[in-house]
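Objective 1b. Sequence-to-structure analysis of Oxidoreductase.
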Amino acid sequence: MRALLVDRSVPGGLRLGEAPDPVPAPNQALVRVTATSLNYGEVAFGIRNAPQGTILGWDAAGIVERAAADGSGPAPGTRVVTLAADGAWAELRAVDTDLMGAVPQEADLGAISTVPVAGASALRALHRLGPILGRRVLVTGATGGVGRYAVQLAHLGGAQVVASTGDPAAHGESLRELGADEVVSGPHAVTEPVDGVLDLVGGDQLVSAYDRLAGGGTLVTVGHAADSGESFPAGAFSGGHERHDRSIVTFFLLACRNLAPDLTWLAGGVAAGRLTPRISWRGSWREAAKATEALLGRRLHGKAVLEIESDPKIA
């Protein structure tokens, strides 16, 4: 099969080459990939740190070519959205069936490929907040892939959504269209306490967002775009009688088992138009270097999608 292989000697660090077909475990289906979406973390850190020749990639959508041997998961020919720690940037992918969701027949698989990390991270993070109907929820880094899903999902859940972005003038209108009630230039600009935070940035923004939490509130740390540590001032965790019992929690998406129902529900939402993935870059996987350069340069406010073109020798 063909795949994008880590090769730090070429621009973008990825080379289209040949690799052995994956051999599925009994609980895995073999999927022919048609589209994959890129995430900042795998591009910024994966390409830099992975061994040469590695096939990376978390998100992919495609069609089941061979069902799992243990009888779990979808049948051959089913359109699916998939998540795994690697292997998405290839023509074929072996995926655990509990990390695979069914996709409506009419859905755009390029758009669906944005669902796994961005959509599922936002959904699971909101679950960690508990009931959000009528509560104020702050989303930092709201213009990124996870952030845009988080704004929409929080709005669908009945929250009053406060979206934080570095440039409200440029992105305020689009965030309000997704369901944001307020758009601010950072957690420091939030004037009223919030009941929950989905922090996608880390660093100083996480510290500032925690300071905006009301008593009993929870901050879920999801992303680390700032790539810097957090330093809390003295007394940050002591609180007063009105701001006690505040929590900071985190989770690792790939350690969340049985994501299949989440992925299926999210894919259905995208297919039906209830959820809108903003795709800022879309093109052939032969142009992966252009996509990774734009992502690393912070020029994309949304997702980058690579189309996995069929090998002309077998098309």
